[in-house]
Amino acid sequence: MKRLLLAGLVLFAACHAFAAAERWNILFIFADDWGRYASCYKGLDGRPTLNDVVQTPNIDRVARDGVIFKNAFVNAPSCTPCRSSLLSGRYFFNCNRGAILQGAIWDSSIPSFPLMLHDAGYQIGKSYKVWSPGKPVDAPIGGQQYAYEKSGRLPNRFSMNVTKMVAGGMTVEAAREKILDQVRGNFKAFLADQKPDHPWLYFFGPTTRIARGKKVRGRNCGASSPIR
């Protein structure tokens, strides 16, 4: 009986501690076609790579204060299936029509972690791409009802937008600041809507994708074709 009582007290204390634990805010950054290129990986590959010349001081700071994944693998080497897996926690082939790229349809009966966090009291928001190509666009985070993009959408297809601005006479530095101003503005708008004592999830998904019908290197590219 004493052992049962002790076990009960330990379980009660653990549950109380879990309930009282601080729930962290979550900033989720997922860029199109980024790959494993950041200067925090310099020297970890055992051979010369782009990480030797790429400079990413802000990402490096996150790495210093957190964890660098040295042996991580994508669940599916394709955009929408990969995101379906990421957002649902399932293997991509268990995501029904979310397991395909072109013509994907999100199955609303599949739980997604952003909406689960919302149900648990988190305030959620997103800018740009979370889940696509597919319909409804960004369905695993509630579509566009939690979108914060009023400050601008230049970070969406940013490589194409920067190229256009530079071709129009703007310096690379000025184009960069214009895009970053929109990033800051959208995030500040999200933070301004937050209620006190409520944790939040913000999903930032800039893309490098080109507009439908544009040509790159003489070939016609659809909306899902990246600039290489």
TrEMBL record:
Top-level division of the source organism's lineage: Bacteria
Naturally occurring in which organism (per UniProt): Chthoniobacter flavus Ellin428
Give the residue range of the signal peptide.
Answer: 1-19
InterPro entries (UniProt xref): Alkaline_phosphatase_core_sf, GAG_Ulvan_Degrading_Sulfatases, Sulfatase_N
Know the name of this protein?
Putative sulfatase AtsG
Q: Which PANTHER family match?
A: SULFATASE, SULFATASE ATSG-RELATED
Give UniProt keywords alphabetically.
Signal
- Record-linked Pfam families: Sulfatase (PF00884)
What SUPFAM superfamilies does the record point to?
Answer: Alkaline phosphatase-like
List, for all copies, the residue spans of the domain called Sulfatase N-terminal: 25-201
